[in-house]
Amino acid sequence: MSGDPERVGHREAPILVFEDVVKRYGSILALDGVRFHVNRGEVVCLIGPSGSGKSTLLRCANALEAVDGGRVVFEGIDLADRRTNLVQVRQRIGMVFQHFELFPHMTALHNVTAGLTTVRKVPRPEAEERGLALLRKVGLADKARKHPAELSGGQQQRVAIARALAMEPDVMLFDEPTSALDPETIGEVLTVMKRLADEGMTMVVVTHEMDFARRVADWVVVFDRARVLEQGPPAQIFDQPRVARTREFLSHLGWHADADEPGNGRAGRLGVREREIP
Ligand SMILES: Nc1ncnc2c1ncn2[C@@H]1O[C@H](COP(=O)(O)OP(=O)(O)OP(=O)(O)O)[C@@H](O)[C@H]1O
Ligand SMILES: [Mg+2]
Question: Which residue's CA is the closest to the ligand 1 atom numbered 30?
Answer without folding.
Answer: 51
